[in-house]
Task: inverse folding
């Protein structure tokens, strides 16, 4: 598993590096994650100070709830980040990482809100709401 990771949006307007280790992946099936990604989120995470932006001219933040906001690319529409006010951590959408990650999905949250067109694969913890 690499110690340092790189990632980007689809168009390259947002490029970042993040110092590992990264948290195992959490899949979130909540309504907000489904709307913003078109499916469900698969997010790793790290302390906020572990993230370094290499390019961010097209990065914008959408306040999706009173206590949290979501980072996305205003040019290509990629979803990349989620952060809760005051948490000191950042969630990073695992699909935006480049190359092998060595990560696995550890848990599914808000499973009660998942779409009816897919099943959650066995092998990870499942929580109906938040964990
Ligand atoms: Zn982009
Ligand atoms: Zn969610």
Result:
């Amino acid at each position: 598993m690499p110690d340092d990771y790189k990632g980007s949006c689809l168009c390259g307007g947002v490029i970042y590096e993040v110092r590992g280790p990264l948290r195992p992946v959490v899949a979130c099936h909540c309504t907000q994650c489904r709307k913003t990604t078109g499916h469900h989120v698969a997010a790793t995470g790290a302390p906020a100070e572990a993230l370094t932006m290499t390019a961010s001219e097209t990065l914008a933040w959408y306040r999706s709830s009173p206590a949290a906001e979501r980072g996305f690319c205003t040019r290509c529409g990629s979803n990349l980040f989620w952060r809760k006010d005051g948490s000191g951590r950042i969630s990073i959408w695992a699909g935006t990482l480049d190359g092998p990650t060595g990560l696995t999905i550890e848990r599914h949250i808000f499973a009660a809100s998942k779409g009816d067109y897919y099943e959650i694969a066995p092998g990870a913890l499942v929580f109906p709401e938040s964990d």
